[in-house]
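Field: COMPLEX_INPUT
Field: COMPONENT_COUNT = two
Field: RESIDUE_TOTAL = 453
Field: MODE = joint
Values follow.
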Amino acid sequence: MPLYETKAIVLKVIDYGESDCIASFFTKEYGKIQGIVKRVRNKKAKFGASLEPFTLSNIIFFGRENANLYNVNSADIVDPFSVNRDDYDKLIHSFYLVDLLNTYLSDRDPHPSLFDLGLETLKSIGEATGRGKTETAINIFQLKFLSESGYAPKMGMCVICGDCNLTPYGFHPGRGGVICRGCMSRVTYAIKVSPGILKFMERAMHGEPHIIKRMIISKEMNGELRYVIEKYLRLHTGRELKSSKFINSHLSSIG
Amino acid sequence: MKGLESVNNLVKEFKRLPGIGQKTAERLAFFVLKSDKSMALALAEAMISVKESVRLCSVCNSITEDDHCEICRDSGRDRDIICVVEESKDIYAIERSREFKGLYHVLMGVLAPLDGIGPSNLKIKELELRISGGGIKEVIIATNPDTEGEATSIYLSKVLKPLGVKVSRIARGLPVGSDLEYADEVTIMRSLQGRKEI
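Field: COMPLEX_OUTPUT
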């Protein structure tokens, strides 16, 4: 049985039996994998904080190639993202990021650039000095996630009439893309979105990382964007993030 | 086992208990089988009795057989300090230390964004009401030192501080009897952050 060693972002850990757990990891080389970790809750367990959500750990695991569940032998912390754990806003945005990866990614489907972006986003959340920056970081990550994982919405033409020379006016989550002013009045369930948001979506999905890093949007635009992405993802995957309700109630409570 | 439906059923029921696998369940079933009928009846009655008579304390949510638990009824305890724990079993762990003489509040869980458990699923409103009632000077948050426990403690401090009480968190760091060499960097970092002058 081959032995693998790789860096992994811890996505979720579920207790299994008296002292074991099943952990989900996002790795650069192997994509999302799941593994059983034995005796993790024993008094003499060697895992410590290496299996806490959104920790970057160096893991060693083994199992058949393409196994559904590997055996995780060891995990050592590379970066615990401690700053993200000391602030409630940063903490729940970091939780949201790992929830997004855990819920929507398929097992053993590598996305190296998404892995790098995930780490970069966790770092940005830690360094953020205000609510707007954490929200922008997570929204950019969501948009990049859409384009990397094959869920990218159509941005270049109206998804109703096919007009390529449109001035985008709204977004249709069901049809999966932008719509023009003319079609906006003809369809239901379309969301009127400000042109700035649509431009931001396009740039965040297809822009170069160094440009994306400098992008900042207002609180209102972040809220609008979150709403559009959430609706779109729910419709196209049939699944809802458990942390979504949590983050929405937190953001509405702080106004 | 073929034709022994009652034994199979008992094994199946024992297997539902935490930490009990097939072999242990079979051993327990055969122990019951070999014992007197009175022993089996006593065991069954004890199980039924615990389900029928144990309820949650109307003040702290700990388990009790009365309306108020023993700790809430004890007039000798400090009534101006509350220790907040995740589950009732945590009270027993803290009581074993004989260090804390105040009252408790059981949250009945912990904030878990990945499982969709938010503040409204916990007994946080009840804690706010207890504090608003007056007489509480300090709240010690004793949730587990994992990410979800930390999230809960940060949320609680945000909610409780405006009520005018001192909010403290139990110390995090190296366990007594452990070896510094084998501790992970997060544990050592927390130990250094929480160091005390001696």
